[in-house]
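ingest -> fold -> write
write: protein_1
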Amino acid sequence: QVLLVESGGGLVEAGGSLNLSCTVSGRSLSDFRMGWYRQAPEQGRDWVAGISQDGSSTYYTDSVQGRFTISRDDAKNRVDLRMNNLRPEDTAIYYCTAGGVRDYWGQGTQVTVSS
């Protein structure tokens, strides 16, 4: 059974930083391309960032480009999302996802950015 557990969310002031982590168990992280999504209150789930299976390529939605950095450590079975210069509109539940033959999702971690 593949399990994804996110951590690192919390409350931060605008302009601050947070580092989200997603730890994968049950399979090797190297089996998956990884990504982060977020869901703001009363909105749909939106893709935020992705990293290729070998870690050579990263992708970001326009609104976080230059502020967020996705990285992976296959030895630790972990993927991180470093979020800098946070804005109130970044407030959401952030979900980690592992993509392969099928997709797996974590339970989410809340990020709240106060103005």
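write: protein_2
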Amino acid sequence: QVQLVESGGGTVQTGGSLRLSCIVSGSIFEIDAMSWHRQAPGKQRELVASITGIGRTSYGESVKGRFTISRDNAKKTVYLQMNSLKSEDTGVYYCNRPFPTPAWGQGTQVTVSL
């Protein structure tokens, strides 16, 4: 059974940085595409960033140039480095493995204060 465990959330001031981590177990991580999503209060969950098994990345428009997704296959971990954080980045951040069977972590709260 695939399990995803996120960590690294917290409260930071506008302009600050955080790095989220997601440790994956129970899958052949090296070939898995992985992604980060977030859900702000009262809003739908949205895709933030994704990375393929060979390291190809893509980003949502609102985070381009500020966030970086990366992976360490030896540690079965995917990261999300978030810089220049804004109040609108506040939300619960979820790690996701979309294929072959979708799997989600429990989420980690990120709060960006003014």
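write: annotation protein_2
The chain has a mean pLDDT of 95.
The chain has no helices and eleven strands.
pipeline exit 0
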